[in-house]
Amino acid sequence: MDTRIQFRVDEETKRLAQQMAESQGRTLSDACRELAEQLAEQQRKNLSHDDWLSEQVNLAFDKLDSDKAVFVDHSTAKSRMAERKAKIRGRG
């Protein structure tokens, strides 16, 4: 079921936005709907990423709890990261 969104803007903003939409062969309503759909899609992506990130954190804690986690000292981690960065930069 579709729902209605109402909001207020000053007359000049409405007039200019309407002119822009019409110059693109759309109505102002179409343009506003498209923007709302784009915002919704961005939020879907954010939520999907949040779910993925939560899953990764939970997997890391599961690994820690099962004593399968491997820890490295700071200098080793720093060295490995520098190697990875160099490898990535070398691809460009």
TrEMBL record:
UniProt cross-references to InterPro entries, sorted A to Z: Arc_rbn_hlx_hlx, RelB/DinJ, Ribbon_hlx_hlx
Domain of life: Bacteria
SUPFAM superfamilies reported for this sequence: Ribbon-helix-helix
Pfam families tied to this protein: RelB (PF04221)
Name under which the protein is recorded: Type II toxin-antitoxin system RelB/DinJ family antitoxin
